[in-house]
Amino acid sequence: MQSLDQPVLRDIVLVGGGHSHVGVLRRFGMHPVPGVRLTVICRDTDTPYSGMLPGYIAGHYSYDEVHIDLARLAQFAGARFVRDEALGLDRDAGKVLCRNRPPLPYDTLSINIGSTPQMSDVPGATEYAVPVKPINGFNERWQRLLGRVRKHAGATRIAVVGGGAGGVELTLAMQYRLRNELRVLGRNPDELRFHLLTGSATILPTHNACVRRAFERVLAARGVELHCNAEVNRVSAGHLQTAGGETVDADEIVWVTRAGGAPWLRGTGLALDADGCIQVTDTLQTVTDPKVFAAGDIASMVNYPLEKAGVFAVRQGPPLAENLRRAVEGRALKPYHPQRRWLALISTGDRYAVASRGALGFQGAWVWRWKDWIDRRFMRKFSQFPSMETGPAKTAPSSVQLNQEEAAQAISAIAMRCGGCGAKVGATVLSRALGALAPVDRDDVLIGLHAPDDAAVVRVPPGKAMVHTVDFFRAFIDDPYTFGKVAANHALGDIFAMGAEAQSATAIVTVPPGLEAKVEDLLLQMMSGAIEVLNDAHCALVGGHTGEGRELALGFAVNGLIDDDMASVLRKGGMRPGEVLILTKPIGTGTLFAAHARLEARGRWIDAALASMCQSNRLGAQCLRAHGASACTDLTGFGLLGHLVEMTRPSGVDAEIDLAALPILEGAEETVAAGILSSLQPANVRLRRALRNQQEAVGHPRYPLIFDPQTAGGLLASIPQEKAEDCLRALRALGYRQAAVIGRVLPQGEALEPIVLRLR
Ligand SMILES: Cc1cc2nc3c(=O)[nH]c(=O)nc-3n(C[C@H](O)[C@H](O)[C@H](O)COP(=O)(O)OP(=O)(O)OC[C@H]3O[C@@H](n4cnc5c(N)ncnc54)[C@H](O)[C@@H]3O)c2cc1C
Prior knowledge:
alpha/beta, five-stranded parallel β-sheet, 23% strand
């Protein structure tokens, strides 16, 4: 999280989480440049490491062993992780255009997005073949293929198109794995038939004759039918046709031929090579724009034509990191000269590998063990990080090159640290940022942001009463857009839990001071996320206040409307014995984000938690009300137990929670078991005195989760038992996939403690 220790002076944006960028992130994590903020935009949180993919396909590695957790890596590097897809560049404005959020500005940009298959020139290939690239999504495609082969009765013919290292390695890895799969199913592995087709006269044309022969022998021994000089020029359902007129029948076709650049690059104005890859100089800067760099498969070094292989992308990481650093510091860049010869360790799927370097070639099971050792050591660099405390002080003077105006703004931002907080953000910055927003229009908003005044004026329609609520909290993630969404959703939760409709909101914002352009963008990103959520709830943003402070924070005062006869109000009291308790969303955000801050959470756990936090309670509340909910509340800081006690007390009832039935976010049980708890947990645990069987329950693995504070949590409601099943079905259809009955309402007993935990 950015703080006042050092304002952001320059933004380096990394598009794609490829092999070069993971190296850049690690290097910046080890040696940060004060004042430089890194942002990585990637459509995946888990990015595959190509060197271990054949081993994964063969079944030697697990999913997690071959994927780098970009979210954790970014957290270590102090970088913002933006899970999104870049769709274009506005190079004049210096912005990356993204699929799901406002454009992200950059001062220096680097592109490492890998390559995409060029299948469209072969009729039928797109429809009937499974492309190996892009590397993201490969796992899904592979799992589907695996499923089909398992189900396919009788002989299965698999054709791999492409005789380079990727095609050969993949054929052998798939064959090894699929034969094992059939054996496990009690079937004959010889039902599998493999064909390998290449347009060249030989396989592995970029390797020496000794390596080629070694693989020709392995392929022959393993019964793979090799088709050389067999350029595939047409694919149809179950068939391949080659330029020489040969036809190969195949149930599965896997495409591992030359790949090119993503189509969106054509609109960037960057010079591309014949395959659509970005042309770069020896400094890895694009030949067109010195602010834009590229590396890995997507880069085409004009002076060094390289193979599209992960090994080159990895090697480009260190020089890329060095040149990005030099670029923001205004220093001369260093040219990178790739090695003429490199070592390739190509596996045969069965824990055996062949080494190839220039004219040299050797092989053995020991080569595979050596490769395995190298690959695992590489992966450890991205999963085991040195202690964060050992990094250089964030307060070190920045070496970033600034112009005069920027330098003056930076000095005043740093001075704010001593001068105290709470100053208002400059009017120009604010009006520019807010001017770009489009809050929803409502007839009952008489004076709002469309005609700003000292205060907003909204009408309460006849027959309606007003519902007020306010929430405010510090940013717990580095992505301001997503934080804006969560903050707005959290604030709206109280309105929906009351059974009300949201009408208008005012925002209270704290931003760390910095260069005007950076503050403006921060506001824009955060408020764009918030506006999306408010607009979706038909809630008009009518005003707000923005001040400077140590940390980014956002809150909303929200007004809602409800029928003034109070008939539709959903209160915390009102639960009736015999009813069941329904929870609409899973719990666990407190422990997960505590773990995230300590680099102990997997990125995909955080993705799922954020998705849950961004899911509105609006439809859930309507559904609960329609199914006769007698009481309702939204889960926030006091955790499940705290909020349930707030309901049982005014209702004059007791309740039972079934721990086994609790919907829990993925990872939360692991982080709780590791003793990682939110800083709010101890205050919530005081409420254990409300538990009748606390002593008995304390050792249960899910016990800590009933105290876990929630951000933008789900709704907890009491529903007549006979309506529960329908209600759950309806909630799930509305997208609350983990909604569950988590307990029941009991008549008030003699015991002082109102809550019983059911343990099994
Ligand atoms: C099954 C398989 C096995 C392979 N085996 C080997 C091997 O053993 N050795 C070897 O050297 N090479 C191997 N390769 C080739 C290797 O995977 C590629 O050469 C290498 O991955 C290229 O690395 P990269 O850094 O350029 O990009 P990638 O590794 O492709 O990473 C690109 C990243 O950018 C993301 N991205 C893409 N577009 C966007 C966008 N628009 N916005 C945001 N994010 C985006 C992707 O999701 C991905 O995370 C293999 C490939 C496959 C598929």
